[in-house]
Design brief:
With 368 residues, the protein is mainly β. It is built from two helices and 30 strands.
Protein backbone atom coordinates (compact mmCIF):
# COMPACT_ATOMS: atom_id res chain seq x y z
CA UNK A 1 0.00 0.00 0.00
CA UNK A 2 1.32 3.44 -0.92
CA UNK A 3 0.35 6.79 0.52
CA UNK A 4 1.70 10.02 -0.94
CA UNK A 5 2.58 13.23 0.92
CA UNK A 6 1.46 12.45 4.48
CA UNK A 7 2.90 15.61 6.09
CA UNK A 8 4.55 15.39 9.49
CA UNK A 9 5.30 18.63 11.30
CA UNK A 10 8.13 20.15 12.84
CA UNK A 11 18.31 -3.59 -1.14
CA UNK A 12 16.56 -7.25 -1.88
CA UNK A 13 17.16 -8.38 -5.51
CA UNK A 14 20.11 -6.10 -5.36
CA UNK A 15 21.37 -8.05 -2.40
CA UNK A 16 22.71 -10.90 -4.56
CA UNK A 17 25.28 -8.77 -6.36
CA UNK A 18 25.93 -6.63 -3.28
CA UNK A 19 26.39 -9.70 -1.14
CA UNK A 20 28.94 -11.07 -3.61
CA UNK A 21 30.64 -7.70 -3.64
CA UNK A 22 30.85 -7.52 0.16
CA UNK A 23 32.21 -11.06 0.44
CA UNK A 24 34.90 -10.59 -2.19
CA UNK A 25 35.88 -7.12 -1.01
CA UNK A 26 36.06 -8.40 2.56
CA UNK A 27 38.24 -11.32 1.44
CA UNK A 28 40.48 -8.95 -0.44
CA UNK A 29 40.77 -6.66 2.57
CA UNK A 30 41.76 -9.55 4.82
CA UNK A 31 44.40 -10.84 2.39
CA UNK A 32 45.72 -7.36 1.71
CA UNK A 33 46.14 -6.53 5.38
CA UNK A 34 48.20 -9.68 5.83
CA UNK A 35 50.52 -8.72 2.95
CA UNK A 36 51.42 -5.27 4.15
CA UNK A 37 50.17 -1.69 3.89
CA UNK A 38 48.61 -0.27 0.73
CA UNK A 39 50.69 2.16 -1.29
CA UNK A 40 47.57 4.22 -1.84
CA UNK A 41 48.21 6.22 1.33
CA UNK A 42 47.52 6.65 4.99
CA UNK A 43 44.15 7.05 6.63
CA UNK A 44 43.87 9.97 9.03
CA UNK A 45 41.33 10.62 11.79
CA UNK A 46 38.87 13.46 11.28
CA UNK A 47 40.10 17.03 11.70
CA UNK A 48 38.27 20.32 11.31
CA UNK A 49 38.03 21.35 7.68
CA UNK A 50 35.93 23.87 5.78
CA UNK A 51 33.29 22.39 3.50
CA UNK A 52 33.90 23.44 -0.10
CA UNK A 53 30.57 24.41 -1.70
CA UNK A 54 29.86 23.32 -5.26
CA UNK A 55 27.36 24.49 -7.85
CA UNK A 56 23.98 22.88 -7.06
CA UNK A 57 22.50 20.21 -9.28
CA UNK A 58 19.63 21.34 -11.53
CA UNK A 59 16.48 20.38 -9.64
CA UNK A 60 12.86 21.39 -9.83
CA UNK A 61 11.25 23.78 -7.38
CA UNK A 62 10.07 21.98 -4.27
CA UNK A 63 12.61 19.19 -4.71
CA UNK A 64 15.79 21.25 -4.34
CA UNK A 65 18.04 20.77 -1.35
CA UNK A 66 16.19 17.69 -0.11
CA UNK A 67 17.46 14.44 1.30
CA UNK A 68 15.49 11.18 1.18
CA UNK A 69 15.83 8.20 3.48
CA UNK A 70 14.26 4.77 3.28
CA UNK A 71 13.19 3.53 6.71
CA UNK A 72 12.61 -0.21 6.88
CA UNK A 73 8.96 -1.04 7.48
CA UNK A 74 7.91 2.61 7.20
CA UNK A 75 8.75 3.92 3.74
CA UNK A 76 10.50 6.96 2.28
CA UNK A 77 10.88 10.22 4.19
CA UNK A 78 11.95 13.57 2.75
CA UNK A 79 14.09 15.82 4.93
CA UNK A 80 13.82 19.49 3.93
CA UNK A 81 13.41 22.90 5.56
CA UNK A 82 14.01 21.57 9.06
CA UNK A 83 11.10 19.12 8.79
CA UNK A 84 10.43 15.59 7.60
CA UNK A 85 7.50 14.37 5.54
CA UNK A 86 6.42 10.93 4.36
CA UNK A 87 6.80 10.68 0.60
CA UNK A 88 5.88 7.01 0.33
CA UNK A 89 4.38 4.86 3.06
CA UNK A 90 5.13 1.21 2.40
CA UNK A 91 6.44 -1.92 4.07
CA UNK A 92 7.77 -3.27 0.78
CA UNK A 93 11.53 -3.94 0.68
CA UNK A 94 13.56 -1.34 -1.21
CA UNK A 95 15.75 -2.51 -4.08
CA UNK A 96 17.19 0.81 -5.27
CA UNK A 97 16.64 4.54 -4.86
CA UNK A 98 18.09 7.34 -7.01
CA UNK A 99 17.73 11.07 -7.79
CA UNK A 100 17.35 12.17 -11.43
CA UNK A 101 18.71 15.31 -13.12
CA UNK A 102 15.54 17.26 -12.26
CA UNK A 103 15.55 16.33 -8.60
CA UNK A 104 12.89 13.64 -8.99
CA UNK A 105 13.08 10.67 -6.66
CA UNK A 106 13.00 7.17 -8.18
CA UNK A 107 12.45 4.07 -6.07
CA UNK A 108 12.35 0.41 -7.03
CA UNK A 109 10.34 -1.57 -4.48
CA UNK A 110 9.81 -5.31 -4.38
CA UNK A 111 6.15 -6.14 -4.96
CA UNK A 112 5.34 -2.52 -5.83
CA UNK A 113 7.43 -1.64 -8.88
CA UNK A 114 9.21 1.55 -9.95
CA UNK A 115 7.81 4.88 -8.76
CA UNK A 116 8.87 8.49 -9.35
CA UNK A 117 8.11 11.30 -6.93
CA UNK A 118 8.38 14.92 -8.04
CA UNK A 119 6.43 18.09 -7.29
CA UNK A 120 4.40 16.41 -4.55
CA UNK A 121 3.14 13.69 -6.89
CA UNK A 122 4.06 10.00 -6.91
CA UNK A 123 3.57 8.03 -10.13
CA UNK A 124 4.03 4.28 -10.65
CA UNK A 125 5.98 3.83 -13.90
CA UNK A 126 6.35 0.05 -13.88
CA UNK A 127 4.72 -2.62 -11.73
CA UNK A 128 7.90 -4.70 -11.94
CA UNK A 129 10.84 -3.78 -9.74
CA UNK A 130 14.50 -3.77 -10.78
CA UNK A 131 17.70 -4.51 -8.91
CA UNK A 132 19.48 -1.33 -9.95
CA UNK A 133 18.58 1.98 -11.62
CA UNK A 134 20.96 4.15 -13.69
CA UNK A 135 19.30 7.44 -14.61
CA UNK A 136 20.65 9.78 -17.30
CA UNK A 137 17.41 11.82 -17.54
CA UNK A 138 13.78 11.07 -16.57
CA UNK A 139 13.29 9.79 -20.14
CA UNK A 140 16.56 7.84 -20.37
CA UNK A 141 16.67 5.27 -17.60
CA UNK A 142 18.63 2.01 -17.60
CA UNK A 143 18.00 -0.90 -15.25
CA UNK A 144 19.07 -4.40 -14.36
CA UNK A 145 16.28 -6.95 -14.26
CA UNK A 146 17.93 -9.71 -12.27
CA UNK A 147 14.89 -12.01 -12.32
CA UNK A 148 15.20 -12.31 -16.12
CA UNK A 149 18.91 -11.51 -16.38
CA UNK A 150 18.44 -8.55 -18.69
CA UNK A 151 19.22 -4.87 -19.17
CA UNK A 152 16.05 -2.82 -19.61
CA UNK A 153 15.75 0.76 -20.97
CA UNK A 154 12.96 3.28 -20.31
CA UNK A 155 12.50 6.14 -22.80
CA UNK A 156 9.72 7.95 -20.95
CA UNK A 157 6.98 5.91 -22.64
CA UNK A 158 7.87 2.24 -22.53
CA UNK A 159 10.27 -0.24 -20.97
CA UNK A 160 12.26 -2.34 -23.42
CA UNK A 161 14.73 -5.18 -22.92
CA UNK A 162 17.89 -4.23 -24.82
CA UNK A 163 20.25 -7.03 -23.76
CA UNK A 164 20.07 -10.36 -21.98
CA UNK A 165 22.84 -11.78 -19.84
CA UNK A 166 23.49 -14.53 -22.41
CA UNK A 167 24.06 -11.97 -25.17
CA UNK A 168 27.04 -10.62 -23.19
CA UNK A 169 29.21 -13.58 -24.09
CA UNK A 170 32.35 -14.54 -22.25
CA UNK A 171 33.89 -17.13 -19.98
CA UNK A 172 30.70 -17.88 -18.05
CA UNK A 173 27.74 -19.63 -19.64
CA UNK A 174 25.67 -18.70 -16.59
CA UNK A 175 26.61 -15.01 -16.81
CA UNK A 176 25.23 -12.74 -14.07
CA UNK A 177 24.60 -9.00 -14.26
CA UNK A 178 26.20 -7.21 -11.30
CA UNK A 179 25.87 -3.44 -11.62
CA UNK A 180 24.93 -0.59 -13.96
CA UNK A 181 25.86 3.10 -14.01
CA UNK A 182 25.91 6.10 -16.34
CA UNK A 183 28.33 9.01 -16.46
CA UNK A 184 26.16 11.00 -18.89
CA UNK A 185 28.26 10.05 -21.90
CA UNK A 186 27.94 6.29 -21.70
CA UNK A 187 26.12 3.53 -19.86
CA UNK A 188 28.30 0.93 -18.14
CA UNK A 189 27.19 -2.62 -17.34
CA UNK A 190 29.19 -5.01 -15.19
CA UNK A 191 28.73 -8.76 -15.45
CA UNK A 192 30.66 -11.94 -14.78
CA UNK A 193 31.66 -11.76 -18.44
CA UNK A 194 33.28 -8.38 -18.04
CA UNK A 195 32.53 -4.68 -18.21
CA UNK A 196 30.54 -3.28 -21.13
CA UNK A 197 30.27 0.33 -22.36
CA UNK A 198 27.16 1.44 -24.25
CA UNK A 199 27.24 4.54 -26.48
CA UNK A 200 24.46 5.32 -28.99
CA UNK A 201 23.24 1.73 -28.83
CA UNK A 202 26.68 0.22 -29.47
CA UNK A 203 27.95 -2.26 -26.87
CA UNK A 204 31.72 -2.56 -26.43
CA UNK A 205 33.53 -4.79 -23.99
CA UNK A 206 36.08 -2.86 -21.91
CA UNK A 207 39.37 -4.52 -21.05
CA UNK A 208 40.14 -4.66 -17.32
CA UNK A 209 43.10 -2.77 -15.84
CA UNK A 210 46.48 -4.30 -16.62
CA UNK A 211 48.13 -6.42 -13.96
CA UNK A 212 50.71 -3.68 -13.45
CA UNK A 213 48.00 -1.17 -12.64
CA UNK A 214 46.83 -3.26 -9.71
CA UNK A 215 50.23 -3.06 -8.05
CA UNK A 216 49.91 0.72 -8.01
CA UNK A 217 46.88 0.39 -5.76
CA UNK A 218 47.89 -2.31 -3.29
CA UNK A 219 50.91 -4.44 -2.49
CA UNK A 220 49.08 -7.58 -3.38
CA UNK A 221 49.43 -9.98 -6.27
CA UNK A 222 46.07 -11.53 -7.14
CA UNK A 223 46.67 -13.49 -10.34
CA UNK A 224 43.27 -15.15 -10.12
CA UNK A 225 41.37 -11.89 -9.55
CA UNK A 226 38.10 -11.78 -11.53
CA UNK A 227 38.32 -9.76 -14.74
CA UNK A 228 35.08 -7.95 -13.99
CA UNK A 229 34.24 -5.07 -11.63
CA UNK A 230 32.20 -5.93 -8.59
CA UNK A 231 30.67 -2.45 -8.37
CA UNK A 232 30.44 0.78 -10.39
CA UNK A 233 30.32 4.40 -9.24
CA UNK A 234 30.39 7.72 -11.08
CA UNK A 235 32.33 10.87 -10.13
CA UNK A 236 33.33 13.95 -12.09
CA UNK A 237 36.59 12.39 -13.37
CA UNK A 238 34.64 9.47 -14.83
CA UNK A 239 33.48 5.97 -14.07
CA UNK A 240 34.98 4.24 -11.04
CA UNK A 241 35.14 0.47 -11.40
CA UNK A 242 36.05 -1.55 -8.33
CA UNK A 243 37.73 -4.86 -9.15
CA UNK A 244 39.02 -7.34 -6.60
CA UNK A 245 42.49 -5.89 -7.21
CA UNK A 246 41.40 -2.32 -6.48
CA UNK A 247 39.31 0.61 -7.74
CA UNK A 248 40.19 2.37 -11.00
CA UNK A 249 38.99 5.45 -12.88
CA UNK A 250 38.16 5.20 -16.56
CA UNK A 251 39.99 7.74 -18.72
CA UNK A 252 40.37 8.06 -22.49
CA UNK A 253 43.70 6.28 -22.41
CA UNK A 254 42.33 3.39 -20.36
CA UNK A 255 42.47 3.07 -16.60
CA UNK A 256 44.25 5.00 -13.88
CA UNK A 257 44.49 4.07 -10.18
CA UNK A 258 41.93 5.78 -7.95
CA UNK A 259 44.32 5.78 -4.96
CA UNK A 260 41.46 4.51 -2.86
CA UNK A 261 42.79 2.58 0.17
CA UNK A 262 41.19 -0.66 -0.93
CA UNK A 263 42.74 -2.67 1.89
CA UNK A 264 41.14 -0.41 4.50
CA UNK A 265 37.67 0.35 3.19
CA UNK A 266 34.87 -0.68 0.85
CA UNK A 267 34.15 2.19 -1.59
CA UNK A 268 30.43 2.95 -1.57
CA UNK A 269 29.72 6.51 -2.72
CA UNK A 270 31.09 9.16 -5.07
CA UNK A 271 30.17 12.85 -5.14
CA UNK A 272 29.63 15.21 -8.06
CA UNK A 273 33.25 16.35 -7.67
CA UNK A 274 36.12 14.01 -6.85
CA UNK A 275 35.16 13.10 -3.29
CA UNK A 276 34.58 9.43 -2.51
CA UNK A 277 33.65 7.61 0.68
CA UNK A 278 33.18 4.12 2.01
CA UNK A 279 32.93 1.97 5.10
CA UNK A 280 36.16 1.23 6.92
CA UNK A 281 37.38 -2.29 7.55
CA UNK A 282 36.02 -2.13 11.11
CA UNK A 283 32.49 -1.57 9.78
CA UNK A 284 31.98 1.48 12.02
CA UNK A 285 34.07 4.26 10.51
CA UNK A 286 33.64 6.21 7.26
CA UNK A 287 36.75 6.63 5.11
CA UNK A 288 36.82 9.72 2.85
CA UNK A 289 39.32 10.54 0.09
CA UNK A 290 39.69 12.54 -3.13
CA UNK A 291 40.34 10.95 -6.49
CA UNK A 292 43.59 11.98 -8.07
CA UNK A 293 44.91 13.25 -4.78
CA UNK A 294 47.89 12.19 -2.73
CA UNK A 295 46.30 8.89 -1.83
CA UNK A 296 45.77 9.95 1.77
CA UNK A 297 42.34 9.61 3.34
CA UNK A 298 40.45 10.84 6.38
CA UNK A 299 38.13 8.85 8.56
CA UNK A 300 35.33 9.54 10.98
CA UNK A 301 35.17 8.63 14.61
CA UNK A 302 33.58 5.20 15.22
CA UNK A 303 29.86 5.41 14.58
CA UNK A 304 27.08 3.50 16.42
CA UNK A 305 27.63 -0.22 16.76
CA UNK A 306 24.57 -0.93 14.60
CA UNK A 307 26.86 -0.48 11.58
CA UNK A 308 26.73 1.57 8.39
CA UNK A 309 23.93 0.79 5.94
CA UNK A 310 24.50 3.43 3.27
CA UNK A 311 26.58 6.49 2.36
CA UNK A 312 25.77 9.43 0.08
CA UNK A 313 27.69 12.59 -0.86
CA UNK A 314 25.90 15.86 -1.63
CA UNK A 315 26.97 18.68 -3.95
CA UNK A 316 28.47 20.57 -1.01
CA UNK A 317 30.89 17.71 -0.24
CA UNK A 318 29.01 16.64 2.88
CA UNK A 319 28.87 12.90 3.55
CA UNK A 320 25.53 11.46 4.66
CA UNK A 321 25.67 8.22 6.63
CA UNK A 322 22.70 5.94 7.33
CA UNK A 323 23.46 3.92 10.42
CA UNK A 324 20.67 2.01 12.16
CA UNK A 325 18.02 4.51 13.22
CA UNK A 326 20.34 7.50 12.99
CA UNK A 327 21.37 9.76 10.11
CA UNK A 328 24.76 11.45 10.47
CA UNK A 329 26.25 14.21 8.31
CA UNK A 330 30.05 14.45 8.08
CA UNK A 331 32.23 17.07 6.45
CA UNK A 332 34.94 16.14 3.97
CA UNK A 333 37.40 15.56 6.80
CA UNK A 334 35.12 13.05 8.55
CA UNK A 335 34.03 15.42 11.32
CA UNK A 336 30.40 14.97 12.42
CA UNK A 337 28.29 18.06 11.67
CA UNK A 338 24.76 16.94 12.51
CA UNK A 339 22.85 13.91 13.76
CA UNK A 340 19.18 13.00 13.51
CA UNK A 341 17.27 9.98 14.75
CA UNK A 342 14.05 8.64 13.30
CA UNK A 343 11.09 9.22 15.59
CA UNK A 344 12.43 12.52 16.94
CA UNK A 345 9.78 14.57 15.10
CA UNK A 346 6.85 12.24 15.56
CA UNK A 347 7.69 10.00 12.62
CA UNK A 348 7.90 6.27 13.21
CA UNK A 349 11.29 5.14 14.44
CA UNK A 350 13.08 2.51 12.40
CA UNK A 351 16.27 1.43 10.68
CA UNK A 352 17.52 3.72 7.90
CA UNK A 353 18.59 1.48 5.02
CA UNK A 354 19.25 4.04 2.24
CA UNK A 355 19.92 7.76 1.82
CA UNK A 356 20.06 9.90 -1.34
CA UNK A 357 20.50 13.67 -1.63
CA UNK A 358 19.33 16.17 -4.26
CA UNK A 359 21.88 18.90 -5.01
CA UNK A 360 23.58 20.31 -1.91
CA UNK A 361 20.88 18.86 0.34
CA UNK A 362 19.05 20.64 3.16
CA UNK A 363 21.03 23.13 5.21
CA UNK A 364 20.15 21.29 8.41
CA UNK A 365 18.36 18.22 9.63
CA UNK A 366 15.01 18.38 11.44
CA UNK A 367 15.58 19.84 14.90
CA UNK A 368 12.68 18.11 16.63
Amino acid sequence: MLKSENRLCGHHGWAVSLGLTAILIGLFATISNSHGKSRSGRVHAATDSAVRPLAPTKVSEGQANAAYIFVKGTGILRLQDDTSSTVLETQAPLRDMQIDSEGGLWASLQGVGVVRHVGGQTVTLNQESFAKLAIRTPTDVWTINDSHGSVVHYDGRRWKTVRTRNSLAGAFDDNRLLDIATDGRAVWVSSWNGLWRVVSGRWTRVEPPAAGAASAVAELDVPAAPAYPLSLLVARPGLIACYLSGCFVSVEAGWQPSHWPADKAHLQSAGSANLVAGTGADGRTVVIARLGGSGEASKSEPLPATGINDIAIDAADRVWVATGGELIILDASGRALQRWKTGMDGSQAGEIERVVVAGPGPAQLPSK
